Amino acid sequence: MSAITFEEADSIRPAQARMSPPSRFGDKVFYWLTLSMAFAVVLLVILIGWQLTLGSSYAVRRFGFGFLTGSAWDPVAEEFGALPFIYGTAVSSLIALLIAVPLSVATAVYLTELAPLWIRQPIVSLVEMLAAIPSVILGLWGIFVMVPWLRDYIFPFLQRILGWTPFFSGPIYGPSMLAGGIIVAIMILPIITSVSREILRSVPDLQREAAYALGATRWEVTRIAVLSYARKGLFGAVILGLGRALGETMAVTMVIGNTPQIAASLFKPGYTLASVIANEFTEATSDMYLQALFEIGLVLFGVTILVNLLAQLLLKTITAGADPGRVQ
Amino acid sequence: MNKQTDRKDHHSWRKFKSGIVSGLTFCSAVLVIAPLALVFVYVLKSGIGAINFDFFTNLPKPVGVAGGGMANAIVGTLVLLALASVIGIPVGVLGGVFLAEYGTARVNAVLRFIADVLNGVPSIIWGVVVYGLIVLRFKSFSAYAGGLALALIMIPLILRTTEEVILLVPVGYREAALALGIARWKTILQIVVKTASRGIVTGILLALARVGGETAPLLFTAFGNRFWNHDLSEPIAALPLQIFTYAISPYDDWHRQAWAGALVLVTGVFCVNVLVRIVTRVRTASA
User: Fold this and answer.
1) Residue A321 predicted with pLDDT over 70
2) What span, in angstroms and rounded, lies between the C-alpha atoms of A108 and A192?
3) For residue B21, which of A126, A262, B149, B253 sits 20 to 30 Å off, Cα-Cα?
4) CA-to-CA distance for A323 and A299, rounded, in angstroms?
5) Neighbouring C-beta atoms of residue A54, cutoff 10 Å
6) What is residue A268's DSSP assignment?
7) What is the pLDDT of residues A283-311, one digit of tens each?
């Protein structure tokens, strides 16, 4: 038997060619189908931006920048200023970060560097379970368990020690800015913990081994080799937590007291951008009222998008940079 | 001699410091877990008393009348999840297939980035958007609007998990199928997606558990309903909505109902999470 000639080879090809056209058509359809579904995410961003701008166009034109700096919120007189809500969102998120960041980063450090191996997975699972608790249930617990407890024990205690500062002076209400901040802290603990954990895990083992080889203790390894290496990524995790804190709605609405005011005392009730939408949207009787709420939504969306963009950029650079050196 | 003891002291001090930090970080881990335990204990303690057969079969009773249930809200949540799945699952899964199988690295990186940013959009914003898109246009709160709001939240979630599990399928599988002359789309659907199906289903279940507990996007889309919903273009009840309404009401009866609802919701969400964890553990164990 001799090898096949060119003519024979040519005669094989048409047969294959006959088989391919139908599949090529299917391929094209499937390609465009999946492509359009993937580009749906772009469409969604445009949809949000478009709907929020459309819904708030009159309010934007009428109030201009004054909307962001005005502190009057009077639906009857059709005067709308978002400052108390911006203040409430900023302060409650700040309180949440102050509480949640040290706790979650320390937990992440414990889980990746210091904990005995057998205890790591159970704690990770429990943190994931905490993340799975619906916001409304945390709010329910907040109203009936946490707020009374804070009012009767923690707040008086804080006042006794720090009552001389404006932040902890004045009468003690149950629902308050501080209660809102604490509930937001609980909501963002899991995400900061799990993202920080991912970041710490992406630190190359060579870094650790080098520090151990110099005779460093466990904590010294963590501090010198791991934390300094992961600083940027951890910052990204914190910013991601901030993004979640800004948009947290149900639990905050249920414990923050929903009063549009700017008060120094954290024991006074406050109001956030997300909760004013949740509370007043269905009650908006006039068009301008609804427009103002849409504009609040626009402000909230703008801020969270910027914060999330920053967080993703910080997280992308760290994981991209860490991959090649990874030993495991 | 002196120098040596110094060094020894210093060493034990360093070890001591390391131990202190271990202890402190352990305490933070306990503090992070504590809210989970506290919430769970209170939901169980306060909810178990109000749970009975009626809770699952009856409609809510008016204020002042004891008893009643949340049958309509439980069914409502299931209906909303089904509606959300109809849009959210195909878009999310097929989009994930695209990111894993087609496209250029740069475009996909951008799409992935956008999906991650979308995951950070507050859920109440989705409610406002769907209100403008559907409710204002059709002049009525509806189950469709609520389902759409949940679907839009699900899309970026499912998209990312699908992509991740599909990328885990070995390239050899694709090459073997293509070498047999099987068309690319058939290879993807029947070999790749099928291999990754368990992971994809896991992602879908987690997304459903997440949006099933969402309240904010339903406030002004599904709106809630005290009765059975017979027409999907009408408002519909949902478990989280009902819990919210009852929780902020001034009535003790309703508070009890809210705790019972919370127990049902938490049990559902936790069951899905535990189930998923067991399934994925089996998979990683066998792989």
Assistant:
1) no
2) 9
3) A126
4) 36
5) 12
6) S
7) 888 889 999 999 999 999 999 999 999 99
Q: Does residue B45 belong to the interface with chain A, where contact is any CB pair within 8 Å? A: no
* 3-state SS track over B38-80: HHHHHHHHHHHCCCCHHHHHCCCCCCCCCCCCCHHHHHHHHHH
Average pLDDT over residues B232-259: 93
CATH of A43-325, one of 1.10.3720.10, 3.40.710.10, 1.10.600.10, 3.30.1540.10: 1.10.3720.10
Residues 69-108 of A with CB under 8 A from B: 102-104, 106-107
Does the CB of B207 have a partner CB in chain A at under 8 Å? no
Structure tokens of A308?
A: 């999330």
- Domain residue spans of chain A: 6-38, 43-325
Q: Which amino acid, A281?
A: F
Q: Is the pLDDT of residue A7 over 60?
A: no
User: Are the beta carbons of A282 and B114 separated by less than 8 Å?
Assistant: no
The helix (run of H) or strand (run of E) holding residue A12 is helix A6-38
Residue B248 to residue B245: CA distance in whole angstroms: 6
- Provide the token pair at A276: 């004013």
Taking only the tens place, the pLDDT of each residue in A128-178 is 999 999 999 999 999 999 999 999 999 999 999 998 999 998 899 899 999
Across B204-232, average pLDDT: 93
Contacts of B262 in chain A (CB under 8 A): 136-137, 140
DSSP states along B197-249:
HHHHHHHHHHHHHHHHT--GGGTTTTB--SS----TTS-B--HHHHHHHHHTS
- Label residue A198 exposed, middle or buried (CB < 10 Å: 0-12, 13-18, 19+): middle
CB half-sphere exposure, A258, CA atoms < 13 A:
15
* Distance in angstroms (rounded) separating the CA atoms of residues B177 and B187: 6
